[in-house]
Design a protein that fits this description.
Number of helices: 19
Number of strands: 12
Distance between the termini: 81 Å
Strand order of the largest sheet: 1-2-3
Structural class: mainly alpha
Radius of gyration: 32 Å
Helix content: 40-55%
Length: 467
RNA sequence: GUCCCCAUCGUCUAGCCCGGUCCAGGACACCGGCCUUUCACGCCGGCGACAGGGGUUCGAAUCCCCUUGGGGACGCCA
């Protein structure tokens, strides 16, 4: 099929969660891969539960993920006239009818059906009554009673649903607003959607929608139903499983590229490849390697992938992402500070941006504090000599290079007969306040001459004051 | 209850459509080792799965059936 047109139709009754994000991603990726179009549609016909805040949250999350749309956002509430004109068509062609049964009556019918061991359904009481439309009446579709409806699904294969399980479901409420299945089909037809990838909770809706397509003599789109994403307890992902909104992952320091990489791989595979750039994903994504079984969301794997994406980025790219986090922590980055160099030293040892920001602080603080435990262990009187000598030789260097610094510390080693570790650890505490940091030389280079010397001096004073 | 979907290491998955190359491969997690100035990174190794039962076949993870288990849907929600 040429001119693939896909869509993502969230209902704005909450934030964008993992499952929704993955569905959006699949549709977006497929459209991008095929050079087609991706349409965003907001399904806000449930006025009681839809909120503007949710709409904004969804936009924000999509934007963060880098999922852009070519058309829309359309709002279903702006399209009521279109829906009613299509309902009228169905009425005119005898594919639908008015019904004045009360909810209580319908409930009774359902109970009755259930008692008989059947699927709870409307019994078709008004089907042949040819009622005139009027206030308080709903419109129902005239569903076939015999035979079966086959859903051809590119992911699940063909599935056959007995029509006896379908009732004459409501397509228009008594207030004139459309029901979900009607609105969706009308939208998908009028928007030219020809490829529908959605959660497999919709698989059982599909025969109903096919019914409407047929009644409207419209061409069927290609359907693909992707399995659900489950939480660690094997139940559908929910708030119980901690962070749910996609934007919360941003706040936890995950990169959008890592997020989409993880999300796509959750259910889709490309041989043994685990790591994908955004560009690769667009090149390689396809519908025929989407799995049929539900998958569990695994934070560990997301985190591991995030670490890999952090390593794969350039320091310049990361500095854009990191800057806001650093500012939140109230450190001042000065012009002479080499943020990118600092980032480079942190890349292999940060799993998230939050972690990276945390461990970058020592580079930029005016005044670092020595951790008590670290000072106790490494700021002993015998550390004084190597620190002083290090300071002396470093001060003597015209400029700092890895080679220079190494030579300087070698001299210290020779003169003090200490092993490298005995010199490096006190230095590390002096420079960072802690016992954990990037390698000594790369760190000094990123820190710069001035701060390095100042901090060693301060450490020397600290030890002397204790003696 | 009724209908529908699904089933490979703890997790994500490759392999399944087109049976033999699979006493099942990769990744995450976990455990051990190497590297080493700390912590990481990296590298090497280990643990670990075809849900069960029947069939078909010379041969089944791969095809068929049943059972079991999990998930979903049955709304004037989407």
């Amino acid at each position: 099929m040429d001119n693939i047109i896909t869509r993502f139709p969230p209902s704005p009754t909450g934030y964008l969660h993992i499952g929704g994000a993955r569905t959006a991603l699949f549709n977006w990726l497929y459209a991008r891969k095929k050079g087609g179009k991706f349409v965003l549609r907001i399904e806000d016909t449930d006025q009681a539960r839809s909120t503007k805040a949710s709409v904004d949250a969804i936009f924000e999350s999509l934007e963060w993920l880098g999922i852009d749309w070519d058309e829309g956002p359309y709002f279903q509430t702006d399209r009521y006239e279109i829906y009613s004109s299509y309902v009228q068509k169905l009425l005119d062609t005898g594919h639908a009818y008015y019904c004045n049964c009360t909810p209580e009556e319908v409930n009774a019918m359902r109970d009755e059906a259930r008692a008989k061991g059947q699927n709870p359904m409307y019994n078709g009481k008004c089907r042949e009554m040819n009622l005139e439309g009027g206030p308080g009446m709903v419109v129902r579709i005239k569903a076939p009673r015999m035979g079966s409806t086959v859903v051809e699904d590119v992911i699940k294969g063909n599935t056959s649903f007995p029509n006896s399980e379908l009732d004459d479901f409501i397509i228009q409420r008594s207030d004139g607003s459309p029901m979900y299945n009607m609105a969706v089909v009308v939208d998908d037809i009028t928007m030219g959607i020809n490829t529908i990838i959605r959660g497999d909770d919709h698989l059982v809706n599909t025969p109903k929608q096919i019914l409407i397509y047929n009644a409207l003599s419209a061409d069927l789109p290609v359907f693909g139903h992707v399995p659900m994403v489950l939480g660690s307890d094997r139940a559908r992902l929910s708030k119980r499983h901690g962070a749910m909104s996609v934007s919360e992952y941003r706040d936890m320091g995950y990169l959008p590229d890592a997020m989409i990489n993880y999300l796509v791989r959750l259910g889709w595979s490309f041989g043994d490849q685990e790591f994908f750039t955004r560009k690769e994903l667009i090149e390689k994504f396809s519908l025929d390697h989407i799995g049929k079984s539900p998958s569990m969301f695994d934070m560990n794997k997301l985190t591991a992938l995030n670490a890999k994406h952090i390593q794969a980025k350039t320091p310049a790219e990361l500095s854009n992402e990191l800057m806001p986090l650093l500012l939140q922590k109230e450190v001042k980055i000065k012009l002479e500070d080499d943020l990118e160099k600092a980032i480079e030293t942190l890349q292999p040892r940060s799993k998230t941006l939050v972690e990276m920001a945390e461990s970058a602080l020592f580079y930029f603080k005016e005044d670092i504090e020595f951790e008590e435990k670290a000072a106790k262990k490494f700021f002993k009187p015998e550390s004084l000599a190597p620190l002083k000598k290090s300071l002396e030789y470093m001060e003597a260097l015209k400029e700092f290079t890895e080679k220079n610094l190494e030579d300087a510390l070698k001299k210290v080693m020779d003169e003090t007969s200490l092993k490298f570790g005995k010199i490096a650890q006190p230095l590390r505490v002096a420079l960072t306040g802690t016992t954990v940091s990037p390698g000594i030389f790369e760190m000094i280079l990123a820190l710069g001459r001035e701060k390095t010397l100042q901090r060693i001096q301060k450490a020397v004073q600290f030890i002397e004051s204790k003696a």
